[in-house]
Specification:
- The complex is a heterodimer of chains A (656) and B (528).
- Chain A contains 25 helices and two strands.
- By secondary structure, chain A is mainly alpha-helical.
- Chain A folds into two domains: 562 residues, no CATH class; 76 residues.
- Chain A has a two-stranded antiparallel ribbon.
- In chain A, helix 15 runs antiparallel to helix 16 and helix 18 runs parallel beside helix 21.
- The radius of gyration of chain A is 31 Å and the shape is globular.
- About 2% of the residues of chain A have low confidence.
- Chain B is mainly α and 528 residues long.
- The C terminus of chain B is likely disordered.
- Chain B has one domain.
- In chain B, a hairpin with a 2-residue loop joins strand 1 and strand 2.
- Chain B is globular and about 70 Å long.
- Chain B contains 22 helices and two strands.
- Classes of the chains: A mainly alpha (656), B mainly alpha (528).
- At the A-B interface, strand 1, helix 5, helix 6 and helix 24 of A face helix 7, helix 12, helix 14, helix 16 and helix 17 of B.
Chain lengths: 656, 528
């Protein structure tokens, strides 16, 4: 498949086209078959290609499929060419694999929706765009996928477009992403101006040649990397552009799982890892990436603690975990960032899908304070979400433990690392364990805080009957179980050095061939230090889980008392630090007002048109006056002649 | 060879004679007149296809040239001289392509259909003439001639304030044209009073056979530039455009935005740059700043418009700002992108006006506030509108992106500051388009009158579908267009480069560069 792996892109595209154009007349079964089938074929092709790639020598593991020239003008060329290497291989497996499971889940979850065909068409289109993003062999083609997934995100967040919230959230997501894309575009311009190409391989080899050592001070590489990073903050919801992601939860839950947890939002991390050659030579940018990453992780984790909406908690959790990934790539631990991206895809998709199962059972109630005691009704959901919670909390031997451990270790010992980064990272780890345990306890344990009658807000799904909550069918639970297994074991491919061999890191190594590694300090530290720190982190996570247990199961009065005692802080967290309000007041409102009252009504209608019409009416006014001279009366003309004659006479008289 | 030296003349004759035929059909027979007009414009389009197929992409010389005597008196020679190069080729095809769609978009016209269709056909003759004329007087003739049908189309079939809009349109344009006429005559005398041949004149100006004093060159440049920039329209000469668009009938807006505005940018490429390169280079900073103001200003003002059509009109100011910026960035990517953007704008804005017409035919309003939630009633319409809106805001994979990217890329090579400001429009465009889209299509239907809206009819789908297919084709397979333009654009770029090698200018440029960058880094660091 290596010569023609690009055909995996075709299936979801064709699926999207068929369902989108003709789907309205299809039966739900046919729509679902086309939707799921096309992604499954893509996944199968990706898997075959991946195994073929494994058969090659590590140095040869980069295969390009050239399709056609997309844009050519002067010395600028951009091709539609696709690259399969270890990095894009891992990414495409995550995208199509997790993507397929979520398609499967949607078969049941979305059943009965009037826009069933539309949903699957958008979802397939998303897989196509995301695959383009990760398989592109140049930045411009990556940008096609980059904006394309943004479009699909827009369409899917706005899926329930009759509600105001969904429309607003969709628009906000697109526009905030475009702010990032503005940076991405400028970054590409600067790359082309400096190096003359946007194609990865030739670009990276040129960079390595022209910059044998990292740039000192703020130079062109810092410019490029920071502009690209602006793009990443938009797509991957980092400070200052993270505000769209929590709102994006207005979309259907499978969308939150696929796009806003497992795949699209990780595109920024992928892009930076792909650009390791550039970033590793711009130490100042690396520092900014790491700091933004860890600050975002911390802020989002704090906000997550105070949220009541189950999906909002997961949304902020995603922002926070993405912050970890940026911390990783920011300290030069490219493989660790991708490793966390890969484990996070499983457990976070699982958490979202599980929350969807809960939401279905609760008739579209999302407030955790109105749940409780669901464990006995939803055993599979409880068990699988429990695994995912242990994974994200970093409890060994679940997947998240290995990837988070790698990141924290690197944030301390890598050449770009720092003790403060590590301390903040550990704090985030403790907070993560706490808010996730809180979510589990509030949802599945304690008293039932709901009535058994149907009480959903918009219970338009005919298949959701009232009565006690019950577990959905196999379409929902099968993906949960598969993801549960993956969340448990997927970390084993990347064991820490003291336990064995990190095969994941070695596999990715050739991708970062041109990255600058001169100042890495890894390997000088003893295993005992690494083990000791790991013990500290895991202990903290366990304490956090225990605290959450005390607060939310044993003695629910405690959190209420804390919230009252620290009402100010609680309000600040509950209102997400008022960032949206600040953006509105400082940016949105002034721009709208200035455009309306200064530019349009002031300059356009007032000044410019005022001047044009003023000249016109001036002319008209004068003409009106002058035309009166032509009165038609002979005596008037005679007196004008006389008047003129007198003037001429006076002129000559005075002149002499 | 399907195309001969007579093909261009044929393209002028078909709609020209077609309008004569229509004149003999009884005015009451609306159906026949509409169908006949459709057939005539379709035949014109089909006849223009061989131009693309037989076009020789390897030469910048004029092709399909027909050059015969027209008015000869006492050494005074005005000739019927037509031909095309890579710059005008696709503008001609764009015109013939948009015409049948505009006729289809005029089905709802009830008042005096016969006169309407005759004027449409005459308009087509005028527009095609402008893009193929190689004689200054012939060019001027067509330039003025197309004003008249457009004036009547707005003034008779327009909205409530149609007279105001028509007069404003006419006076604005005529004001510019008069200066151009003076410049044409001056050029004739500078050329030794022997010909109005555009190609010959351009060559003689390039090889030094005709030398213009610096001041004369600047004045001539400005005379042409003013005429063209009013047509484009460049900020601050744009205020005729929103009025004309809002009052014009649907097809009038399509043609106005799709083709007439491009006559301005085409003029810049055909006259201002190759004939007066020194003046162009000297004045470029001012022009680029005006273009950038237009890009941002147009987008911001579009954002707050309560009328969909006016929103699209202001978005045109923004898009055409990109074209002018690209032209005055003087390199291959930028001018190639600008030329591409002319076509893109014709496709996407033409389609937007047709789409607005579709909803106007049903509801007789274009106020955003009167709509909301109509995607429920009109899913096909909502989908097609979204695709075109995305093409307009430069979604990669569709046509708008290719042009916008190349213009910005080329501008970046010239000045980073300019590119940064211009690129901010990618954000603003998303804001005004999606905000409008949300208010019109999303949400619940609040207005009773929208409850009974019917989705697009087959005629309307046939009208929009070709534009969508073009948007995709041009977005994916841009080389099939760009390759044919390349050599002709290269010639313009070379002409500018000749002038720029002038030492004085280069020193100025270097000083300017050192001062201008975004603050990221200095030039010396870059070239390291």
């Amino acid at each position: 498949m290596l010569e023609t792996f690009w055909i995996l892109l075709l299936f979801p595209l064709v699926g999207a086209a068929i369902n989108g154009i003709f789907g309205k007349r299809f039966s739900p079964g046919l729509i679902a078959t086309i939707g799921c089938g096309s992604v499954f074929i893509s996944f199968a092709i990706a898997l075959l290609t991946f195994f073929e790639l494994l058969g090659l020598a590590p140095a040869d593991r980069a295969v390009t499929n050239h399709l056609f020239t997309w844009i050519e003008s002067g010395n600028f060329v951009a091709n539609a060419s696709f690259l399969f290497d270890p990095l894009s291989g891992v990414m495409i497996l995550v995208v199509t694999g997790v993507g397929f499971l979520i398609h499967l889940y949607s078969v049941e979850y979305m059943r009965g929706e009037t826009g069933y065909y539309r949903f699957f068409a958008y979802l397939n289109l998303f897989i196509f765009m995301m695959s383009t993003l990760v398989l592109a062999d140049n930045y411009l083609l990556m940008f096609v996928g980059w904006e394309g997934v943004g479009l699909c995100s827009y369409l899917l967040i706005g899926y329930y477009f009759e509600t105001r919230v969904a429309g607003d959230a969709a628009k906000k997501a697109f526009i905030v992403n475009r702010i990032g894309d503005f940076g991405f575009l400028l970054g590409m311009f600067l790359i082309f101006q400096t190096f003359g190409t946007l194609e990865y391989h030739s670009l990276f080899s040129t960079v390595a040649e022209r910059f044998p050592a990292p740039e000192i001070g703020f130079g062109v590489l810092s410019g490029i990397t920071l502009l690209l990073f602006l793009g990443a903050t938009g797509k991957s919801a980092q400070i200052p552009l993270y505000v769209w992601l929590p709102d994006a939860m207005a979309g259907p839950t499978p969308v939150s799982a696929l796009i806003h947890a497992a795949t699209m939002v990780t595109a920024g991390v992928y892009m930076i890892a792909r650009s390791a050659t550039l970033y590793s030579r711009a130490p100042e940018s690396m520092l900014i990436v790491a700091v933004i990453g860890i600050v975002t992780a911390l802020v989002a984790a704090l906000i997550a603690i105070a949220q009541r909406d189950i999906k909002k908690v997961l949304a902020y959790s995603t922002v926070s975990q993405l912050g970890y990934m940026f911390l990783a790539v920011g300290v030069g631990a490219w493989a660790s960032g991708i490793f966390h991206l890969y484990t996070h895809a499983f457990f976070k998709a699982l958490l979202f899908l599980g929350s969807g199962s809960v939401i279905l059972a609760m008739h579209h109630e999302q407030d955790m304070l109105k749940m409780g005691g669901l464990k006995k009704y939803l055993p599979i959901t409880w068990a699988t979400m429990g695994v995912a919670t242990l994974a994200i909390a970093g409890i060994p031997p679940f997947a998240g433990f290995f990837s988070k451990d790698e990141i924290l270790w690197n944030s301390l010992v890598s050449g770009h690392g720092h003790l403060l980064l590590w301390v903040a990272g550990v704090l985030v780890a403790a907070l993560t364990a706490f808010y996730m345990a809180r979510l589990m306890y509030l949802t599945f344990y304690g008293k039932e805080r709901f009535s058994h009658e149907s009480h959903g807000h918009h219970d338009d799904h005919d298949h959701h009957h009232s009565g006690p909550p019950k577990e959905p069918s196999l379409f929902v639970t099968l993906p949960l179980m598969i993801l549960g297994v993956l969340s448990a074991i997927a970390g084993l491919v990347g064991l820490p050095a003291w336990l064995g061999d990190n095969r994941f890191e070695h596999f990715l190594e050739p991708v970062f061939h041109y990255a600058y590694t001169g100042d890495g300090h890894q390997g000088e530290h003893s295993h005992s230090l690494e083990i000791g720190l790991t013990v500290v982190i895991v202990t903290l996570a366990l304490i956090s889980i225990f605290l959450a247990y005390r607060f939310f199961v044993k003695n629910p009065a405690i959190p209420e008392r804390i919230a009252e005692r620290f009402a100010g802080i609680h309000k600040l967290l509950w209102n997400k630090f008022y960032v949206d309000e600040v953006y509105d007041a400082l940016i949105v409102w002034p721009i709208e007002r200035i455009s309306r009252f200064v530019l349009w009504k002031g300059i356009d209608v007032g000044i410019i048109d005022g001047a044009v019409n003023g000249v016109a009416s001036l002319m008209q006014g004068w003409s009106n006056r002058v035309k009166r001279l032509q009165s038609g009366y002979a005596r008037a003309y005679a007196s004008w002649i006389l008047f003129g004659a007198v003037l001429i006479f006076l002129y000559y008289y005075l002149a002499n | 060879m399907l195309a001969s030296e007579n093909i261009l003349t044929t393209l002028l004759l078909i709609p020209g004679l077609g309008s004569l035929i229509l004149a003999f059909i009884p005015g009451k027979n609306h159906g026949l007149i509409r169908n006949l007009a459709l057939v005539i414009t379709l035949v014109t389009f089909i006849c223009s296809v061989p131009l693309v197929l037989d076009f020789d992409a390897s030469t910048a010389d004029m092709q399909f040239v027909k050059n015969i005597e027209w008015i000869e008196a006492g050494g005074f020679s005005i000739r019927y001289n037509v031909g095309i190069d890579g710059i005008s080729l696709f503008l001609i095809v764009l015109t013939t392509f948009l015409m049948p769609l505009s006729v289809l978009g005029s089905w709802s016209i009830q008042k005096n259909v016969k006169a309407y269709m005759i004027l449409m056909l005459l308009l087509e003759v005028g527009m095609l003439g402008v893009f193929m004329s190689l004689d200054l007087v012939l060019f001027y003739f067509f330039w003025e001639a197309q004003l008249i049908p457009m004036y009547f189309l707005i003034g008779i079939w327009g909205g409530a304030r149609r007279i105001y809009a028509a007069v404003k349109f006419f006076l604005y344009t005529a004001f510019g044209s008069l200066l151009m006429l003076a410049a044409l005559i001056a050029l004739y005398f500078f050329n030794g009073g022997n010909s109005f041949d555009i190609v010959q004149l351009t060559e003689r100006l390039a090889n030094g056979a005709v030398v213009l004093a610096p001041m004369a060159e600047i004045l001539l440049f400005l005379a042409f530039f003013l005429a063209f920039s009013i047509k484009v329209p460049l900020f601050p000469f744009h205020t005729w455009l929103p009025d004309a668009h809002v009052e014009a009938p649907t097809a009038g807006s399509v043609i106005l935005a799709g083709v007439l505005l491009k006559m301005g940018t085409y003029g810049l490429l055909r006259f201002c740059l190759p004939m007066f390169p020194t003046a162009a280079v000297k004045l470029a900073p001012v022009i680029c700043v005006l273009a950038i103001i237009g890009i941002i200003y147009g987008a911001l003002v579009a954002m707050v418009q309560p009328d969909v059509k006016k929103l699209v009109a202001y978005s045109s100011v923004s898009h055409l700002g990109f074209v002018v910026l690209g032209i005055f960035a003087f390199n291959m990517q930028a001018i190639g992108g600008a030329t591409y953007q002319m076509l893109n704008h014709g496709i996407s804005t033409g389609a937007l006006f047709l789409l607005v017409g579709i909803i106007y035919d049903r509801r007789h309003t274009r106020q955003i506030a009167d709509f909301g939630g109509i995607a429920h009633r009109m899913p096909i319409f909502a989908t097609m509108f979204l695709i075109i809106a995305l093409s307009s805001i430069g979604m990669p994979g569709l046509n708008g992106f290719v042009g916008e990217f190349l213009v910005l890329q080329g501008t970046f090579l010239m000045s980073r500051t300019y590119a940064v400001f211009a690129a901010s429009a990618v954000i603003l465009a998303a804001i005004y388009m999606l905000w409008m889209y949300q208010r019109v299509f999303m949400g619940r239907i609040e207005n009773e009158k929208n409850m009974t809206l019917q989705d697009m009819t087959p005629r309307e789908i046939i009208m929009i579908l070709p534009l969508i297919l073009m948007a995709i084709w041009m977005g994916v397979a841009s080389p099939s267009f760009l390759n044919k333009m390349d050599v002709s654009i290269q010639k313009v770029v070379d002409r500018i480069e000749d002038v720029r090698t002038d030492e004085v200018y280069r020193v100025e440029q270097e000083q300017g560069d050192a001062l201008s960058p975004v603050g990221l880094m200095t030039t010396s660091e870059l070239t390291k």
